[in-house]
Amino acid sequence: MNKVTMKDIANLAGVSKATVSMVLNNKNISVSESTRNKILKIAEELNYIPNGVARSLSTKKSQTIGIILPDIINPFFSEIARAIEDTANKLDYNVIFCNTDSNSKKEEKYIKLLISKLVDGVIFITGGGENKSLEILKSNNVPFVLVDRDIDNKEKYCGVYCLNEEGVKEAVEYLLKKKKKKIVFVTGKKELRISKQRVKGYKSIMVKNNIYDEKLIFEGDFTIEGGMKVTEEIIQANKDVEAIFYSNDIMAFGGIKVLIRKGYRIPEDISIIGFDNINISNFIEPELTTVAQPIYDMGKQSCEALIEIIDGKPSNKQIYFKPKLMIRGTA
Length: 331
Ligand code: RIB
Fold this sequence. Notes:
Blueprint: H1 6-13, H2 17-24, H3 33-45, H4 52-59, E1 64-69, H5 75-90, E2 94-99, H6 104-116, E3 121-124, H7 132-139, E4 144-147, E5 159-162, H8 164-177, E6 183-187, H9 193-208, E7 217-219, H10 224-237, E8 243-246, H11 249-261, E9 271-276, E10 289-292, H12 295-310, E11 318-321, E12 324-326
Parallel strand pairs: 1-2, 1-3, 3-4, 4-5, 5-11, 6-7, 6-8, 8-9, 9-10
Antiparallel strand pairs: 10-12
Helix pairs in contact: 1-2, 1-3, 5-12, 6-7, 8-9, 10-11
Bound molecules: alpha-D-ribofuranose.
């Protein structure tokens, strides 16, 4: 069984394939209203699907964009992907989601797949490591926009980012005001620039208050399990820890689980702060105090910026969003 073709419709309608093509593509053609309606009715009854690849080849546009992201089960990425998809759909584009597990080989494989599928552009959240993927996009002249995670020489590319350092500073100063001094900071993967930006914010405030101790910085991996594991290490090494600031919400969820199981009271014994403000952080109990990234707006603006570039307005603008400390129940 083959897919329904224009030839099938033409045979049933008693017209040429060219007439069917002109009617289905809304081209101006002198055909009677009854013939037009007959063609459209047969196409609907047969569930005819236009050949998107053929159309892309002829129009050089697929009305499709690709989204490259490191971990689709981390709500930060699924929420930003949702914002991109909503915006793309409103602008008459479809999306293809590519989950890379922060693996640069998988990233490259997906980039090549998207190019072979003739996507009109790519929204790229790097998993870290080398950026051969971007070289492949550039050499194929595929428009792309970076979002959330910047890279070296970011000023050369259009990007949408959060002011990570600023957000961390505000949260650390808040903890100090709460008389918490022994503040542990849990990073994301250390090689990521966003991890370095967040550590820089933490270090600057702790140094300013003469309480910086590099042994209070622990490397995390942005996962719940990673949050649980690093929290075991933290309380093993620091019996008198007063606060733990995790570089994302789901690591904080893992940490809270471990601490409560060990009998710690939150925030009385240990204050907890996260980063992202994913939707669920407002529903766990106690509700998570966290540094809110404007996730939806970042996704929306990155998509709008990409489609502007696709429409022929090249850009290397960088858009920065200010994060906001959401004070809730854990600090
Ligand atoms: O939760 C995933 C983290 O990595 C977020 O903080 C976001 O900034 C992403 O880069």
